[in-house]
Design goal:
alpha+beta; SH3 type barrels; Alpha-Beta Plaits; four-stranded antiparallel sheet
């Protein structure tokens, strides 16, 4: 009796076993071997494939049990399910191997959406084949389901629009993975283009899903790609219309051309434009080209900081809203107090520097009143080697690098000056061209001393020329050694500087 039952169950198993399974399993094993050894995510594919195979085996076993129990309809259904699962798995693995292993190996990289659509069509074709073998009249089904097809197409028009839109975007290569795009108020980098949507990662780290049909209808701006390497940005600001525009434009363009600001292109160079006259103000825009679309706001901020500092160096301030201002005795008294505090701070700063330590209280107070506040931003070129400028800088905060330019492409770092030092003194004392280039290593604050401010002091006490010559000689020996390759005699060097001071300030003797 037991042998008879075992024989009957073996016959049931034989009914659900198909010879095509052997070919399918061999092909599945080969494709899995290729994917696991070539693709980095091959082990994930292997796990999913085992899950599908397990479902197929369970369906086949359930079909055998149904046959054994004479439940023919469930048995046929479960047998068909096992066949369909094996077929879908074979199609899936073949598609992955074709599009992600074989085609890339011959340098063909079709769009991902094309892979998805072809696989979906293959799944549909496999389903129709199984339906045909099950006895379904496909021609009759097609001809009698026109209304149903129309209803389905109408209800799925958005989905079909997304599919066709994604396919069009990929085939004409208008939007590619890695592009930086802007759609309405959405701005970010394209990370995936699927059959239904395009995924965009914003600069905030968010991933926004945009239907492909929307990309086909909306205006898409590509701000960064292999073809669009630079993106022009606009920085707007307003100044009083009493300030000559030509001075503003010339000063700001020179400052930004010389400044070393990361991600700001040198070609084309930044350009300052007078945009409009509005509400009693002059509206300007600084236009520059950004070389990395991802870092837009931080670079805009850096450019604004440089503009602000450059305007302060020129003695200009950003315009305030046009309002009626009523002065009071309290505000005048407060401004006077702040002015006196600032003068005291300037005098203490001058007293701490060897170049001005021998000045009398009256001379120091006079010089403090004539100082000009001059801020610079990190990367600004404060003085250029070879330029002629009759003033020096008192470094109040920050650090500056002193560079000797050997030629147009080579320069040597001489030293880094911290706060509490002066530089550019030879230009003030002797009128000589700048012997080195000074670049702001950090954001710095300086006071500038011009020749007219110092001329009254040195004419009233010519003996100061000897003291200044001694101090300048000590400070200038290193630079002379670098420029000439040999060290100059100290006394001769001091005498030469003293002679330059006397000639520049027209001192007798």
């Amino acid at each position: 009796m037991l042998d008879s039952v075992s024989h009957d169950f073996s016959q049931s198993l034989a009914l659900v076993w198909h010879h095509e399974y052997v070919n399918a399993l061999v092909l599945i094993a080969i494709l899995l071997f290729v994917l696991v050894h070539v693709r980095t995510e091959g082990w994930s594919i292997l796990k999913h494939s085992f899950v599908f195979l397990l479902l197929a085996v369970l369906s086949a076993l359930a079909s055998s049990v149904s046959y054994f129990l004479d439940m023919l309809i469930p048995a046929r259904i479960l047998d068909e399910v096992a066949i369909i699962i094996v077929g879908l798995l074979t199609i899936r693995l073949f598609g992955l191997s074709l599009f992600r292993v074989f085609l890339p190996s011959i340098r063909l990289t079709p769009p991902r959406i094309l892979e998805d659509i072809i696989l979906v069509l293959a799944y549909v074709a496999w389903g129709m084949v199984r339906m045909s073998q099950a006895g379904v009249n496909l021609s009759g089904l097609v001809t009698t389901s026109a209304v149903i097809t129309g209803i389905i197409a109408f209800s799925m028009q958005d989905t079909l629009g997304n599919i066709l839109g994604g396919l069009a975007l990929q085939l004409d290569n208008s939007v590619s993975i890695g592009n930086w795009i802007k759609v309405d108020d959405i701005s970010g980098q394209v990370i995936e283009v699927h059959w239904r949507h395009t995924a965009v990662r914003t600069r905030n780290g968010e991933i926004i899903v945009i239907p492909n049909s929307l990309l086909m209808k909306a205006k898409v701006t590509i701000v960064g790609s292999e073809d669009v390497t630079q993106w022009r940005r606009w920085i707007y600001f307003s100044l009083s219309n009493s300030i000559p525009p030509q001075r503003v434009i010339e000063g700001l363009e020179k400052a930004l051309h010389e400044a070393e600001i990361p991600l700001v292109s040198k070609n084309p160079a930044p350009q300052c434009v007078l945009m409009d006259y509005k509400d009693g103000l002059s509206v300007y825009a600084m236009r520059y080209w950004l070389t990395n679309a991802q870092v837009d706001d931080p670079t805009d901020s850096s450019v604004r900081v440089h503009i602000f500092a450059a305007l302060q160096r020129q003695g200009y301030a950003l315009a305030s809203p046009a309002l009626d201002v009523h002065m009071t005795a309290e505000s005048v008294e407060r401004d006077t107090q702040l002015h006196e505090t600032e003068l005291a701070l300037r005098q203490r700063t001058l007293r701490q520097m060897a170049l001005f330590a021998t000045l009398s209280d009256e001379e120091c107070a006079h010089l403090a009143k004539t100082l000009t506040y001059t801020p610079f931003v990190k990367g600004d070129i404060i003085t250029r080697q070879g330029a002629v400028a009759h003033w020096l800088y008192v470094l109040v905060s920050g650090e500056v690098d002193i560079w000797y330019e050997v030629n147009k492409t080579e320069r040597k770092l001489l030293t880094t000056l911290p706060a509490g030092h002066v530089f550019g003194e030879m230009g003030l004392m002797t009128g000589e061209p700048r012997r080195a280039t000074v670049i702001a290593k950090s954001d710095v604050e300086c006071y500038r001393i011009d020749k007219p401010s110092f001329e009254l002091i040195i004419h009233s006490r010519p003996a100061l020329a000897v003291e200044f010559a001694h101090i300048l000689s000590e400070r200038n020996m290193q630079l002379v050694a670098v420029q000439q390759g040999v060290a100059e005699n100290h006394d001769q060097h001091q005498a030469r500087i003293l002679d330059g001071i006397k000639r520049f300030f027209r001192l007798g003797g």
